[in-house]
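Look over this today:
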Amino acid sequence: MSELLVRPARAEDEAALGALKLRSSLAWGDHVEELRALPEARQVPLAHMPHVIVAELAGTIVGFATVLGGKDGGEAELEDLFVAPEQWRAGVGSALLVEAERRAMDGGARVLHVVAGERARSFYETSGFRFAGTVATAFEPAAELRKTLGDRRRVRTPRTDRR
């Protein structure tokens, strides 16, 4: 099996990201007709592309995440995190989340915020997010979750023996 590559999105990824977003959204079988009728269910806004990270396996995009905001120690938002259904539970989402957190911290965020449906809630809670409330979405109420991001200055890197 090839190694997972996490990289910044490129302009030429736009169509593949939109298709992946729709396919992943439809995989559970919920709100199928509504999602098919919703143009934004198959699009990643062009303005978001500089904030998108892509997971690629053997040259194929298998997931992506979008991290917005986070300036001046504020809160960043995990706008999207989609993984190809055939790659669910294979570590793709976790790899994207680790990179999303790193990028949010690099951008000055101290907190990462996400709104997640009930099916995704346990993934985020297992990753350290805490329930912060319930919000209305276009289809049904969803969990609002937040994670306080670590201070990388406190992380010690292992010393190497130079003998």
The helical segments are 14-26, 32-37, 92-106, 118-126.
